[in-house]
Amino acid sequence: PLPYSAHCVRALQVLAKDRALQDALVEHLTDIVNNGQLYDGDAKVPQPLAMAATAALGAVCESPDAAALVQTHYALLLASLAMRVGTAQGSAAVAAAAGYAAGVTAEAGAEAALRAFVERSGDKAARRALDANDGWSRLASDDYTDALTALIAAVAESRPAVRSALFECVAPYCKGNFVEQRCVAVVVIGELVQHTPVTDADNLLARLVQALLAALIDPPLKRFALRGLGNVVTAGEDAVNHYAPTVLDALTSSMEHADESIVLEAMGGLSKVFSLVEEARVQPILVNICHRIRPAFGKLNDGIRAEAFRLFGTLARFGDGAQADAFYEQWHANLPLLVLHAADDARGVVDACREALGRLAPLARDDGMTALLTGRHLRAGRSLQFAEFLDDFATAFIAAYPRRVNPLANAFVDQFSLAVGHDQGQCGRRSRPPAPQCAGRDASVVSHQRHAHCPRPRHAARRPLARRPQERRGRHGTLAHLLK
User: Fold this and answer.
1) Are 234 and 195 within 8 A, CB to CB?
2) Alpha carbon distance 421, 425 (integer Å)
3) Torsion of CA 31, 34, 38, 44, to 10 degrees
4) How many CB atoms lie within 10 A of CB 261?
5) Is 166 exposed, middle or buried (0-12, 13-18, 19+ CB in 10 A)?
6) Which residues, 6+ apart, have CB-to-CB distance to 283 below 8 Å?
7) 141-199: per-residue pLDDT in tens?
8) pLDDT at residue number 452
9) HEC sequence for the chain
10) What angle do CA 342, 343, 348 make, to 5 degrees?
């Protein structure tokens, strides 16, 4: 029964010292952990044999004489224990009737075995990666993939020679029997992409990318596969352009996915790819990308709003090419939302809007507007005086684009109408349904109005736009200024 007695641990360690037996011992234990029946039933009750094999690997790695064994089987042990951390997630504690001590869990066993492996390997970078940001405790939480990502990043940097072997160990499990096993395999591959140069003699980068593209068809893996594809930018401009057709297609087709975590990864990946890819690859789809981004500006998810504005800002790099005029119109169409969300309640959205406005400023085709968008109001680290900024924005806009004042004013009025229409729709006083994706969160120009008998809308407790009285007056004043 677990935990093993001192005599049992010592016996395993003696076996591991025997050079004639140690290879067979490691291969046997890892085969059980990787290919055996790990748990049974919907309750995910872990199987005793899998838990015993995990504990045995930890006991072997704890031996002071196991340093050479760990180095010889480094990739196999790391891959097996990382996947075991995944498959142990959510497993029920073994019943005391089965002979195990109360509270013994698969999660604790996997974490203990991985800790013993890291310590015996002497890999300081790996240890620092898990010591930081509470990594060890996150191995037994829903964030276990983030902790494993940090671990693989450290290993790939400190041990470049092990990258190919590590890929060979996890690649077969992208189609493994257990979802968590497949997820960890794709997480490892995605992180290896970030640390693999295109010049590797064994063409490792190409094999990594192909594995990620194949994983896209498996819904639980898609988020991690998209993250890995976005990491291809670290291989350099030539690699990005080489893989651009398939990578861009995979990322853009996921921007409107129903799963918001997938949308976040797709937008984040596109932002990275657009920073390096050659313009000719993007110009034909530039306007289409703009249309796909716009609905995300009104999402309730703060992270998606921030990524959407950041992604739109990265498109500025392509705004003076063959599609310059078309992108200029998109810039004006989205400018009201960028300005209003510069006072979003979410700090990340505010930062993304400031960054985007700064990148887009050179495309304003007016020196005064460019100076405003790159000036003191939106400077990083500075507290935005929103009312003052709106007054200056209105003045600069009227001077720069007198023929566009009416469309801009109408855009602000539309946001006002959508917000009020949504609130009145909650009361049943309007037949008009709420705006899609709760457009009132986009750019509410006035404070939230609510009838006494109307239930509070589900997003009213936390609005993305600042609502300080002086800022509301500033918005009304600016709207009046534009309507003159």
Assistant:
1) yes
2) 6
3) 170
4) 16
5) buried
6) 318, 321, 322, 323
7) 989 999 999 999 999 999 999 999 999 999 999 999 899 999 999 999 999 999 998 87
8) 34
9) CCCCCHHHHHHHHHHHHCHHHHHHHHHHHHHHHHHCCCEECCCCEECHHHHHHHHHHHHHHHCHHHHHHHHHCHHHHHHHHHHHHHHCCCCCCCCHHHCCCCCCCHHHHHHHHHHHHHHHHCCHHHHHHHHHHHHHHHCCCCCHHHHHHHHHHHHHHHCHHHHHHHHHHHHHHHHCCCHHHHHHHHHHHHHHHCCCCCCCCCCHHHHHHHHHHHHCCCHHHHHHHHHHHHHHHHHCHHHHHHHHHHHHHHHHCCCCCCCHHHHHHHHHHHHHHHCCCCHHHHHHHHHHHHHHHHHHHHCCCHHHHHHHHHHHHHHHHHCCCCCHHHHHHHHHHHHHHHHHHHHECCHHHHHHHHHHHHHHHHHCCCHHHHHHHCCHHHCCCCCCCHHHHHHHHHHHHHHHCHHHHHHHHHHHHHHHHHHHHHHHHHHCCCCCCCCCCCCHHHHCCCCCCCCCCCCCCCCCCCCCECCCHHHHHHHHHHHHHHHC
10) 70
- Residue 18 near residue 74 (C-beta atoms within 8 A): no
Contact by Cβ (8 Å): 357, 384: no
Query: Could you give the CA distance from residue 483 to residue 406 in angstroms, rounded to a whole number?
Result: 7
Q: Quick one: pLDDT at residue 449?
A: 34
pLDDT tens for 199-226 read: 776 799 999 999 999 999 999 999 999 9
Residues counted in the chain: 484
> 62-71, pLDDT tens digit by residue?
999 999 999 9
Bridge partners (DSSP) listed for residue 46: 39
278-302 residue pLDDT tens: 999 999 999 999 999 999 998 989 9
- Dist CA 435 CA 420 (whole Å): 10
Q: Is the pLDDT of residue 472 over 70?
A: no
pLDDT tens figures, 104-129: 888 999 999 999 999 999 999 999 99
Angle at 334 between CA 332 and CA 339, to 5 degrees: 100
Residues ≥6 apart with Cβ < 8 Å to 241: 277, 278, 281
Q: What is the pTM of this model?
A: 0.83
Rounded-to-integer distance, Cα 414 and Cα 435, Å: 11
Query: What's the rounded Cα separation, in Å, for the pair 271 and 335?
Result: 19
Q: CB-based contacts of 227: which residues, under 8 Å, 6+ apart?
A: 190, 265, 268, 269
